[in-house]
Amino acid sequence: MYVVTIDQRGSRIAEDLVPGLLRDLADIPCAAAFERTAGDEVQGLLTDPAAVRSALLVALRGGEWHCGVGAGEVDDDSYATGTRAGRGPAYLAAREAVEAAKSLSSSVAVRVPAGGGGRAGGDGTAWAADCEAVWALVAPLVLDRTEAQWRVVDAVDHSDTQAAAAHELDITPASVNGALRLSRIREERAAYPALDRLLAGAHQAATGGPR
Predict the structure, then answer these.
(1) CB of 82 within 8 A of CB of 32?
(2) Which of 143, 192, 196, 210 has the fewest CB atoms within 10 Å distance of its CB?
(3) Strands 65-71 and 108-111, how do they pair?
């Protein structure tokens, strides 16, 4: 499984952003839903690498969060009453990851449990490091995107055509094309399969189970 721990930046001097983040994460498929665990931190338990990616992208878009992912085993049924009750190596790895994320410009770190590698023909630590390295390339694309670029991306995502999005935003199709190019959303999304595959590989290597 995958434990995702997200910690607010500078929370001691900033407003509490946890309620808004939890609303934004509400539609992410989880084994145990995201919830506040302590102060300015939220945590969720997930089973799908693509869902992990989606959760991280939600947090990165907000621009105010450090994100840690722990890939590994979780004690059976420990999370039955919620993710805060969960226990196991993946939780410890997520704690290490979120602390590591605080020193990264990407604000995303990926970890497997100590000694969690090699049982399934691969080193979990190496898989996790590779996944983190790709996030180091993807995260700045999200963090640097302007609000105007996000408006265009969102409009295109829910419109049938770019022309329809341009009409909705009352701008020209050429302006839509230009905003999409500057947003680098295509480059970001091209990396999704690699992110998912590397995280799944880290999990398989750490647990000996399926990706």
Answers:
(1) yes
(2) 210
(3) parallel
